[in-house]
Amino acid sequence: MVLNLLFGLPGERPGGLVLTVLYFVASGLGALMLGFAYAAVGVILPWGSLPLQAASALLRGIPLLLLVFLLAHVPWLTTGGAGLAALLIYSFSHVGESLRSFLASYPRYLSEQARLMGIGPAREFLRLRMPWTLWRAWGALLTHWVSLLKDTGALVVLGIGELTTSAKVLSETSASYEHWLTVLVLAAALYLGTTLALIYGLKFAMGKAGKVMHREQAHA
Amino acid sequence: MAEDAVQLNQDLWLAMAGTMVLWAVSGGLAILLGLIMSAGSLSGHRLWRLAARASVHFTRGVPTSLFVIAAGIGMMRLARAPELPRFYPGTAAAFQHVAWGIVLALALGSAGHLAEIFRAARQALGRYRLEQATVLGLSRFGRGALLARECAAIALPPTGARLVHHLHNTAFAALFPVTDLFGHVLAESNATFRVFYFTLLGCAIYVILGGLIWLFTRILEAALVPPATEPRKRTVIAWS
After folding, report:
1. A162 phi and psi, to 5 degrees?
2. Contact A66 B62 (CB under 8 A)
3. Which of A60, A85, A201, B135 is most exposed, with minimal Cβ within 10 Å?
4. Over the stretch B127-175, which tens digit does the pLDDT of each residue have?
5. Handedness of CA B88, B92, B96, B101 (dihedral sign)
6. pLDDT tens-place string over residues A167-187
7. Cα angle A128, A130, A131; round to 5
8. Chain B contact set for A160 (CB, 8 A)
9. pLDDT-derived band of residue A219, with 50, 70 and 90 as boundaries?
C-alpha cells in the first residue's frame, strides 16, 4: 500500500507522491520563469501591461478544477500535458503578481549604482534585480508553493495517478473500514511530510543563500 | 426545445444554489473552527496551545481534495445512512449525509489557513494596544468585541481572499453525488459535448461569485474598521 502511494499503482508508474512532486516542481519552476517575464513586462510597461494584468486577475478567479477540465479538452494536449498546463497557468497567475509587486519596489539607487559600475540593463536585471526580487518575495512564494503542492490534488478530476488519485482508488477498492482509514491517513501523512520538507528545505536553502550574499557584500 | 432550455436554466440555478449553500455553511464552519484554533494558538495553557498548533499544521498541510475524498467515501460507505432533511438544494435525500460530510471536509481544509490569518491579525495589533484594551476596564466580552473590530482591518482582506479560494474548493463536491456548479458543468459538457460553452459559463459564474465575495468583505471592512485605523491624509509640512 505504501509503495502504491509513493510510486503509483501497478501499471501506472511513476505515480503517487513521485508524480505529485514531479508535477509540482515542473509547474512551479515554469511558473516562476513565466512570472519573472510577466513581472518585467509589468514594470517596464506599467500601463501597457494592464490587459495582461487583467487577464491574470481573471485567471485567478477561475477554479483550478475548471481550468484542468477545460484544458483536458484541448485536442493537441495529452491528459498529463493538460494537467501540467493547468497547474502552470494557475501558479503563474499567482506568482506573476507577487513578483511584479516586489520587482517594482527595487530601489532606484541600486539601478543607478549598477549604471555607474558599467552594468547594462539586461545584465543588471539577470544578475542583480532578479536575485533581489527572489530574496524579498520568497515568503510569499513559499506560501504559494505550499498551496501549489496541495493543489496538485485537483488532477484527480482527470484521473492522473498522482497521490490524491492513488489514495482515492485505493480507498474506494478497500474492503474494510480499517484499510480505507489507513490509506487516507497514510496519504495525509505523505502530504504533510512533503509540505514540511518543502518549508524547512527552502528555509535552509534561503539561510545558506543569505550567508553567501552577506559574505560577498562584506568582500565587496 | 424551449422546455429543454427551461430545464437547463432550472438545473443551472439549482447547481448555483447548491454551490452557494455548500460555500456558506462550510465557510461559516471554517471561520468558527479558525477562531477556535487561533484562540488555542494564543492560549497561555501549553497543552491547549500545542493541540491548536498541531491542528493548524494538520489542516494546512493536507490538501482539501484529500479531506473531501476521505469524507465523501467515508459517508458513502456508511452501512446505515441516516435519512436527513433536505438542506442542500439539488442533492438527493439519500445523499444529504454525503453533502454534510463534504461540508465538514471543506471547512477543515480552510480552518487552518483562517486560524493563521486571525492569529496574525491579533498579533499585528501589538502589545501596547492589547494592554490599552485591558486597562479600559471593559468586560471580557466587551474587550473581545473591541479587539475583534480592531483586528478586522487586518484580517478581512486575506479572509476574503481565502473565502474566494474556499468557493473554488467547493468544486471538489462534484466527485460525489452532491449538486454543485462544477458538477453541473461536467454533466452538461458530457451530455451535450458543448464543453467550451459550459466551461466558459462556469468560469464566468465563479468569477462573478468570487467578485461578490470580495465586494462583501470590502463592504464589511468599510463598516467595521474603526475611524482610528482608517488611513489619514498625509499632512504636508511646509518648509519654513
Report:
1. -80, -170
2. no
3. B135
4. 777 777 777 777 777 877 888 888 887 888 889 889 999 999 999 999 9
5. negative
6. 988 888 877 878 888 888 999
7. 70
8. none
9. low
Nearest-Cα residue of chain A relative to residue B76:
A172
The dihedral through the CA atoms of B179, B180, B183, B188 has a sign that is: positive
Cell of residue B164, nine digits: 474566494
The x, y and z cell numbers of residue B46, run together, are 501549553
Residue B90: which residues within 8 A CB-CB, separation 6 or more? B11, B14, B15, B17, B18, B179
Residue from B171, B158, B172, B173 nearest B213 by CA: B158
Q: What span, in angstroms and rounded, lies between the C-alpha atoms of A172 and A180?
A: 7
Question: Residue A159 region, left (φ>0) first, then alpha (ψ -120 to 50), else beta?
Answer: left
**What span, in angstroms and rounded, lies between the C-alpha atoms of B35 and B109?**
14
How many whole angstroms separate alpha carbon A156 and alpha carbon B66?
10
Is A44 within 8 Å of chain B by CB? no
E strand or H helix at B125: none
pTM of the model: 0.85
Q: What are phi and psi of A9, to 5 degrees?
A: -75, 150
Q: Kindly report the length of chain A.
A: 220
C-alpha cell at position A126 = 539577470
Distance CA A49, CA B220 (A): 31
User: B171 and A63 in contact by Cβ < 8 A?
Assistant: yes
CA–centroid distance for A150 within its chain: 10
Give me the helices (H) in chain B, please: 2-41, 46-61, 64-76, 96-124, 127-135, 140-169, 181-192, 195-224
Contact between chains at A167 and B66 (C-beta distance less than 8 A): yes
Rounded CA separation A146/B118 (Å): 19
A64, A69, A150 member nearest B186 (Cβ):
A69
Q: Which residues contact A195 (CB under 8 A, 6 or more apart)?
A: A146, A149, A150, B60, B61
Residue type, B208: I
Name the residue among B206, B191, B184 with its Cα closest to residue B13: B184
Look at residues B50, B8, B74, B58 and name the one whose alpha carbon lies nearest to residue A171.
Answer: B74
Backbone angles phi, psi at A123, to 5 degrees: -70, -40
Tell which residue, B214, B215, B52, B44, has the closest CA to residue B118.
B52
Query: In the structure grid, which three cell numbers stand for residue A187, read together?
Result: 496519504
Nearest to B61 among A69, A70, A192 (CB): A192
Residue whose grid cell is 509540482: A24
